[in-house]
Amino acid sequence: MTAVISIKPLLAISCPIICAFLIFLFRKRPNIRESCTIIAGIVQFLIIISMAPTILHGSVIKFHLLTVYQGIDFSYKVDAFGLIFAITSSFLWILVSLYSIGYMRALEEHAQTRFYFMFALAIFSAVSIAMSENLITFYLFYEALTLSTYWLVAHHEDEEAFFGGRKYLTYLLSSGWFLFAAVVLTYVLAGTTDFVGGGILTSGSGSRFTLTLLFALFALGSMKAAWMPFHSWLPSAMVAPTPVSALLHAVAVVKAGVFAVLKVTIYIFGADFITSSGANDWLIWFAGGTILLASLVAMTRDNLKLRLAYSTISQLSYVVLGALLATNMGLLGGALHISMHAFAKITLFFAAGAILVAANKSEVSDMGGLGRAMPITFGAFLIGSLSIIGLPPFGGMWSKWYLGLGTVESGQWLLLSVLLISSLLNIAYLLPVSVKGFFGKTRDGTTYTRIKEAPVSCLIAMMITSLACVLLFFYPDPFYELALNAAGGK
Are 304 and 433 in contact (CB under 8 A)? Predict the structure, then answer.
């Protein structure tokens, strides 16, 4: 694979850093502050998307920062898999920023400068994770992402927010120690931490016990993936403003967790080594169990954001399952699900936030008839729900299709049943929201006459992500080609 040396990765990660500086500089001029955020997001997205032709032609793009010691470097390498995550994160940053303008102003949220500042730093960390050439660089920004998002989770600064923030830090910083141990052990066994297609570990790298221990350390270090039983930090983090929830669920944090699982599977262990060594035999059932159990819990939650939080826990394990299947179809489906789920889930959170802004309602049981007053919002929620379920003509169908093929390819018929049952559970906890909104009645039998849609910027962002859910069904090729490349299919 040809390596192209380019400054583009550095330019891409510089955008949110420059943006953070400008946000602080124009902290007393909100219109300029927020314009800088959106412009930086657009520029970053254009830089990242400009790298796609090079990657699709079979090359990688590199930029070296510095060498600390032999085999210990801080450097960037953009490949197909990293580009999927980077494109998704940078594009959705634009839309979350646009949505946040209407949301934060409508609710008159405090500390808005800090909100946009920390958001920019979170995107800086997420895109740096996507473009990391090795585990050293990856680990540095993986931990930076945790620290930069703390104040977003604890934004409201009340007792509930600080409790959620402390729990968030406790889980994710603790998992960081496991990841650090995994990085050190990888260096000891392989003499390098570089991400290499096919993996850097071989049967001679260590005993089966040692390699299984290493895989377990990586799994424990990936608690951002919120797999059970290490998931409770995510529902607790729902005390944050809705744009932050969108960041956690669709753009950066949990996606970084499942990205780590896929990255380690493909580029550290290698799919062939994973299947031949049996290192994935037990973890794959944690993923399957999480898919079903989280869906069952979601059905019991009346609070809409909590219902969506448990939905995310379930959906993330689709990606983990794809990685642990370690087949071309499984890896393809897992890589695709990062983007397909992101667009659908962010639509759902945008709708949940719009309902809070316009109607001050957060419980599903209180939303009867509300869809007739807010048809755009509930229509968007319906589109996002159908994509999460995996029905055509919505993009979520493709990732679930390939994940299903992955289970067939590996002979895991029970896991195929898990995917099918999960889709039925998705229907059970998502569709009632739209049905209740459009066809249900208010508690007192009256109709909503004073409630209108959320601010225009919220609606625009929501309509764009809804449209993307449809377009990704008919035109999945850009993400499909990158995912196929990442999975080793071309």
Answer: yes
